[in-house]
Amino acid sequence: MLPVNCGSHADYQNFVVTNLRKYYPDPNAFSRDTWDIIERFWNLDFSYTDELLAAKYSKFGPAPRTPSCMQRSYLLSIDFKVHSITDWAAQLKINPLYAILSGFDFGNTPGVGTFYDFFRKLWDSDSDNLSPHIRPLKKKKVEQPKQKGSKALPVEKVTVDQLFKSLETDSFSIDDQPYASLFKIYIHEFLTISISKGFINPSGLSIAGDGTPVVTSARERKHCVCDCKEKGITNCECDRYFSQTDCDIGWDSSRDCFYNGYDLYMLVAANSESDLPLFPLLHPASKHDSHGFLETYFRFRAFLPDLHVSKWILDSAHDAPYYLYCRENGIQPFIDLNKKHGTREKYKEDFTIGKDGVPVCKAGRKMNHDGSEPSKARLKFRCPLASRKYGCSCSDPCSDSKYGGTVHLAMKDNPRLINFPPRDSKEWKLECNARTSAERSNKREKIDLQLESGRHRSSKM
User: Fold this and answer.
1) Is residue 1 part of a domain?
2) pLDDT digits over 401-446, tens only?
3) How many domains in the chain?
């Protein structure tokens, strides 16, 4: 039969108070950390989960567990560092606190199968993965970078320009995604609440993005589906059956090793107080950040059209042809330059542009920033040795004027190196300091919430 709604969030709070007084009459029985968890779940309203998932239950048969209680219980297992569903189901039977905070009567808690049945209802697809198990071998694999601590080169068949054109014309719909129900729960119960409380500014978002490795297994598991071995062919290139079809082998630059699994790309509200996450997306481990960002961002823009982005704050792995798109869409790019792509370029035969976007004169001196013209999308720089009173003190002055030689950098000439604000400005450095919010968010998921400890083997889980 359909799940029996336990009532409003206030009813859950009354249930918790009544049972905590019954089983734990002494408030000092809990540590401060445990009280923090109790307070957090006391304020989390999961009523929308009951509304959304009601249609996924049969009208016949025994009464199922309340979906909001199942969701709350699983989130509790993460907070209490119990990563096995089997262990958590056992803990619910012997620990009254876990059962009470979940919303279950102690002695009447769900089993392991009930949790997995609930997970199936959160995943809107018959397949546990996004791609089929049988697929061809990759022609090009990730190579170990020569320099320690650096990221591997991209192995994608398409360039960033080609990916831009395809994603801009694609129309993404959240209802077509297998994680649609899970995403709707996230929007209603978490993201909307953060916006309503003023933690996230929906009209002027500064987003930071970064990918992080998610290890799922020690090696890539695959086997042949052809009969080439029977014919004596040992090195065939036929399709293989992959047990983890959405995973592949990538390079972990922080651990300096290859790994098998995913690359989790997270978009974070860099101008929020607590580095709040906005949109996560799992990619194969070999996906380069320059491609992972685009695939994540365009889905984020399609699924959350009410959020307006004003700034991109990204590291040097994203130093790709993003700049014209940003200018056309009113976005300020704060992207570190990748030295491998070149940082010193000749400009109008007289100057070169340095790695920080500041012109360097013939004598090799960095010029001083002397104003901006946003309407014309250009910056003005002046000779560092020029003085209106004494003229230029350079032995080989580039101008007869006491004002000194000047150069105007137009963004249209080189949108990658010529940026607003200039890369040597205080505003630039202040904004770029917020880029670490993406790294702190990834640390929270991988270290604090121990994402890899779940040892999951499918995209659904």
Assistant:
1) no
2) 667 777 777 777 777 777 777 777 788 888 889 999 999 999 999 9
3) 3
